[in-house]
Structure formats: C-alpha cells, structure tokens
From TrEMBL:
<dbReference type="Pfam" id="PF00005">
    <property type="entry name" value="ABC_tran"/>
</dbReference>
<keyword id="KW-0547">Nucleotide-binding</keyword>
<dbReference type="InterPro" id="IPR027417">
    <property type="entry name" value="P-loop_NTPase"/>
</dbReference>
<feature type="domain" description="ABC transporter">
    <location>
        <begin position="250"/>
        <end position="493"/>
    </location>
</feature>
<feature type="region of interest" description="Disordered">
    <location>
        <begin position="482"/>
        <end position="504"/>
    </location>
</feature>
<feature type="domain" description="ABC transporter">
    <location>
        <begin position="3"/>
        <end position="239"/>
    </location>
</feature>
<dbReference type="InterPro" id="IPR003439">
    <property type="entry name" value="ABC_transporter-like_ATP-bd"/>
</dbReference>
<feature type="compositionally biased region" description="Polar residues">
    <location>
        <begin position="486"/>
        <end position="498"/>
    </location>
</feature>
<dbReference type="InterPro" id="IPR003593">
    <property type="entry name" value="AAA+_ATPase"/>
</dbReference>
<protein>
    <submittedName>
        <fullName>ATP-binding cassette domain-containing protein</fullName>
    </submittedName>
</protein>
<dbReference type="InterPro" id="IPR050107">
    <property type="entry name" value="ABC_carbohydrate_import_ATPase"/>
</dbReference>
<dbReference type="InterPro" id="IPR017871">
    <property type="entry name" value="ABC_transporter-like_CS"/>
</dbReference>
<keyword id="KW-0067">ATP-binding</keyword>
<keyword id="KW-0677">Repeat</keyword>
<keyword id="KW-0813">Transport</keyword>
<dbReference type="GO" id="GO:0005524">
    <property type="term" value="F:ATP binding"/>
</dbReference>
C-alpha cells in the first residue's frame, strides 16, 4: 500500500469536520475522493500535504508511519498537491515557479538559471505547452497556470499526486490532455488522489472511489459497476430526481442589444440580442473573449467601439458601480480575487452586492435583504458553521455558493454568470438551475458563460459560440449538440458572424 490513512479525526474551532475517516491508495492507482461541498475532501488531503495535522489517527506511506508537519516534509516524502486555484507566484516566471525552493544549483551555491529554463521548457512541452520558460505567470490564463502547477509537481518526482479539482477551469481538449498525462503517471506507479465535482469524469480516469458525507466515510469500492446516480445517492444521502428544470419560457421583448462591440485584442464587432424569457449561453475556449465581452458590457473594461442597448436605451457604464446601479449583476469566476471578501463573515458577504471593493459599504442591504441572504444560505445548501463564519474558512464550493447567493438575492434585472457552478456539488447545482429558471420566469435577463457543455445544453435556450474574439456559431437548444459546439469553439467550422453578415 502506498498510502494508508486510518481513523483520521479533525476539528476546527470545536466543530468536527473529519470523523474517523479511513483512506488507502495503491501504487499506480487513481482514487477518486468524492463528496458534497464541505464534506471534508480538501481537509483530508491537506493532512498529507502537510498543511493540516490530524487531531487523531495514523498516516503511513509505503508501510512507514509518518508525521507530516509542513509542505517541505510532504515534498520530501514524495507528496505533491495541485489545487483548484493554482498556488503560483504571479510575478515570477514559469521556470522560477516550477523550481521554487528546489532550484538546480552550480557548485551547490548559485541557482543554475540556464538548466532551470531548459528543464522547465522540456516539462511544459511534455504537457503540450510551448511557452517561453521566462514568461511571467501573471501573463498566463488560468488553464495555463494549471499546467505550470502540474509541471511543478512532475519536477518534484511525486510518488503521491493529489489533484483537487484539476479540471474545474479546463476546456474539454485540455482535460483530455490531462487525462493522457494521468494515465502515463499511473504507468510509472504514481498514486493519484483525484477530487472532482464533474462526476462524468470518474469512469474515464479513476479505478476506485471513496465517498465522504459531512466528514464521515460513506463507502470505498471499485468504480466498475457504480453508476452516476449511485454516486450522487451516496454523496447526498438522497436521490436526485432531475438536474435541470423543464425550460418552458416564452421568448418575449428584447432586453439587451449589443451592436458592433469591440475591445481589442479580446473581441471584435460583436452583435447579439437577449430577449425576455431567454437563458443565453456563451460557449468557447478559455481566452475566446467571452469573459472580456461580459466585463465590457458591465463597464469593468473599456470598449473601443460599439453600442450596448438595454431596454431600448443606450448604456455606457464607466465602471461596475454604474452597472450595479442599473441593476446589472456579475457572478465572477475569480472567487477570492474580486468575488468575495475573505476576512468578512458569510452574512456580510451575502449582503454586499457591490463588486467594486472601494464602494463596498455603499451596497449594504437592509434587514429584509439580510433575511433573503439567509434564505440563500438555505436554498443553496451552503454548508456552514453559522452566518458569522469567515468566508476564508469555507470550503471552495461553499465560497462559490456565497458569491452566487449574493447576486441571487440582490434582485438584479440582468445577470452575467461566469462559470457559475465551478466547484459546486451536484445537489446545489440543481438548486441553482431552478433559481435561474425562476429569475428568467420573473422577466430577468440571463447570460451564462460556461465551459461545462452539459450545463449549457441543459439550461440555456440559445447558445452563442465564440472563437478568437468572434461569435462563430449560434444555435437554439433544439439544434445544439456537444459536437457542434466543440467544433465551432475550436474554430473548425463557422465564419465569424460579423464577417458573414458583412459578406451578405
Ligand atoms: N481552516 C479552517 N478553519 C475552519 N474551518 C475550516 C477550515 N478549513 C476547512 N474548514 C471547514 O471544514 C469543512 C470541510 O471543508 P473542506 O474544504 O475540506 O470541504 P471540501 O469537501 O473540500 O468541499 P468543496 O467541495 O467545497 O471543496 C467545511 O465546513 C469548512 O468550512
């Protein structure tokens, strides 16, 4: 046995979050660790990465009892962890990040930069990335940063590799590339602990599964013969009747019209309309310009040219604050960047609807809204110790739920949801889709940007596909298929819509 964890217990501030959990990992095994938001998955793996220590219980690696008190000790034992938000130094280069703390040295003294760059380039190339190793990490997209985090783990010759939602921000193609890598790690005998909320991935890549619920071990078994519904039942402790609500909206009046909107280098000459009763989805690869388009309409980025017409009147916001005053809402994918205030408690975070931290106090809502915030906690099943808990102590998925909950209670007229269900468990997704459905029924505008194609196909009434800053395809829910979206998103078919219109 490569890793053996026995009877692990852990409490924070007197609340038990792991209760007698056992976990075993074999050589060359990919072992899925599954559970709802706040079930204790990250806390469990942080015991082997040296971030937390168990209050009780035993950990052995290759049969030898270990006490892992720091990430350096974990590294020395061959444990590497890749988090959902890659922990990289933004102002350092790719090579410096990969070899941070373990730089190759000349005569044991000076960092050997040439070797570092050469090795960094080779590892990145093996992952399919051709970046110059001197590129600063802050110039990379999130998925490219993930590749650097993986390269870092590879460079440390890990025996145990922990992947905490590695695919949450990856496109399908990048995901396939990661799976190939995982298979090659398996062949080398590396044991992988794989945490994900994308249950459809499990059978692709994992051998065994352990499911936790509320800090307790529910089951460990071979994945073979275990269907997605069984996994959901073990995770939630109940059946899930449906994931997506029945969409029955009638298309009504035009709400939003975007004409010739350009913001170089992100997107050019974008045209589209949004109607009442519609849930408009934006598909495309990361970097195709979808997020920047939404941010430009929202006033967070300045446009070069073009018009945005909201309910028949042109709007040109000088910043997000003006957009919020016009009852526009934006759920950000960058949770701890702009979305939340980590040192404030859950109630405060839920009742601040302003994005712009400089003005945060001006958006405090009143008692009535605070009650609504508590409703949101219940509605999205936010697993918390109480409304006074600081957001930084919430699990990743519960932080995302707070971001969402805040906008849902803020009563906006137009919502932009950018990767809204990333890191959210399947039970809460269902609740969220139902909330989206109700908001649209109540006449609100809804624009969803998502890399999760099943989500776009399940919830949207119309889908626009972006590629390299252009809208290259448009389809109704009935016309949409995963194949068509994937092909358009990768630029294999379709003419930029603006160009097609010019040709006509
Ligand atoms: N440092 C901490 N201080 C206090 N509570 C914490 C701390 N870290 C985690 N918790 C709590 O422990 C519980 C388990 O959190 P954990 O992050 O392990 O969940 P998870 O299963 O990884 O969830 P997710 O799927 O949302 O990432 C949660 O209730 C969380 O709020």
């Amino acid at each position: 046995m490569l890793l053996d964890m026995q009877n692990i217990n852990k409490s924070f501030f007197g609340v038990k979050v792991l209760d007698g959990v056992n976990f075993h990992l074999g050589h060359g095994e990919v072992h899925a660790l599954i559970g709802g938001n706040g079930a204790g998955k990250s806390t469990l793996v942080k015991m082997i990465s040296g971030f937390h220590q168990p209050d009780e219980g035993e950990i052995s690696i290759e049969g030898k009892r270990v006490h892992i008190n720091s990430s350096i000790e974990a590294q020395q034992l061959g444990v590497s962890i890749i988090y959902q938000d890659p922990a990289l130094v933004q102002d350092m280069s790719i090579a410096e990040n990969i070899f941070l703390g373990v730089e190759p040295r000349v005569f044991g003294l000076f960092a050997n930069h040439r070797k570092m760059k050469r090795d960094a380039r080779d590892i990145m190339k093996s992952l399919g990335y051709m970046h110059h190793p001197g590129t600063l990490v802050r110039h990379l997209s999130l998925s490219e940063q993930h590749a650097v985090a993986i390269a870092k783990a590879i460079s440390k010759r890990a025996r145990i590799l922990i992947m905490d939602e590695p695919t949450a921000s990856l496109t399908d193609m990048e995901r396939e590339r990661l799976f190939l890598l995982i298979r090659s790690f398996k062949e080398e005998g590396i044991g992988i602990i794989y945490i994900t909320h994308r249950l459809e991935e499990l059978h692709n890549i994992c051998d065994r599964i352990t499911i936790l619920r509320d800090g307790k071990h529910v089951i460990t078994r071979d994945l073979k013969g275990l269907g997605e519904n069984d996994v959901i039942r073990f995770m939630l402790g109940r059946e899930l009747k449906y994931l997506f609500p029945q969409v029955t909206h009638e298309k009504g009046k035009e709400l939003l019209s975007v004409k010739g909107l350009t913001r170089k280098p992100w997107f050019t000459n974008i045209q589209f309309q949004l109607y009442e009763g519609e849930i408009l989805g934006f598909a495309g690869l990361v970097g195709s310009g979808r997020t920047e388009l939404a941010k430009t309409i929202f006033g967070e980025l300045k446009r070069d040219s073009g018009e945005v017409i909201w309910k028949g009147k042109e709007v040109r916001f000088r910043g997000p604050r003006e957009a919020i005053q016009h009852r526009f809402g934006f759920v950000n994918r960058d949770r701890l960047g702009k979305g939340l205030f980590p040192d404030m408690n859950i109630s405060q975070n839920l009742t601040i609807s302003g994005l712009d931290h400089l003005h945060k106090w001006q958006f405090l809502l009143f008692k009535e809204e605070q009650d609504k915030a508590l409703d949101a906690i219940l509605q999205l099943s936010i697993n918390i110790q109480g409304p006074d808990q600081k957001v930084k102590y919430l699990s990743g998925g519960n932080q995302q739920k707070v971001t969402l909950g805040r906008w849902l209670v803020a009563d906006c007229d137009l919502y932009f949801l950018d990767e809204p269900t990333q890191s959210i468990d399947v039970g809460a997704k269902t609740e969220m889709y139902a909330s989206i459905h109700d908001l649209v029924e109540a006449g609100k505008g809804m624009i969803i940007i998502s890399s999760d194609l099943s989500e776009l196909l399940g919830i949207c009434t119309r889908i626009l596909v972006m590629h390299e800053g252009h809208i290259v395809d448009e389809m109704t829910r009935m016309e949409a298929t995963e194949e068509r979206i994937t092909q358009s998103a990768s630029g294999m078919t379709g003419t930029p819509r603006s160009e097609a219109q010019e040709i006509e």
